[in-house]
Amino acid sequence: MWPEWLTLRHDHGSHFIAEDFQQEIAFLGIKDSASYVREPQGNCIAERFVRILKENLLWVRSFRNVEELRLALLVFKETYNRKWRIGRHGYR
């Protein structure tokens, strides 16, 4: 179902470490990748991306079905990765 390279990056919150959660992502074929202890910036980066996604796609468009949403997310991913000026690229 998921690509074999799919990895879930998360902090050490109790819900991510819970046995039920770990079993579920293993069942789905998703690799677990806990961030380093005392490095909250990993969570901050993920939360900022989710905010960008909401503000630029999810809150400004309506989708008729899941397939339309999936296609819009693919376009957003391509635009974000290729055209957005972000800090890690020196804002170029």
Question: Can you characterise this structure?
Answer:
The chain has 92 residues and is mostly helical. The chain has a domain at 41-86. Helix content is 53%, strand content 9%. Strands 1-2 form a two-stranded parallel sheet. The longest helix is centred in the middle third of the chain and has 18 residues, at 41-58. The mean pLDDT is 82.
Distance N terminus to C terminus? 35 Å
Overall average residue pLDDT: 82
Strand order of the largest sheet: 1-2
Number of helices: 4
C-alpha Rg (nearest Å): 16 Å
Query: Strand-residue fraction?
Result: 5-15%
Amount of helix: 40-55%
Structural class: mainly alpha
Topology record:
Blueprint: E1 7-10, H1 14-17, H2 19-27, E2 31-34, H3 41-58, H4 66-83
Parallel strand pairs: 1-2
Pfam families: rve_3 (PF13683)
GO molecular function, one term: nucleic acid binding
InterPro entries: Integrase_cat-core, RNaseH-like_sf, RNaseH_sf
Question: Which short descriptors sum up this protein?
Answer:
92 residues; mainly alpha; two-stranded parallel ribbon; 53% helix; 9% strand
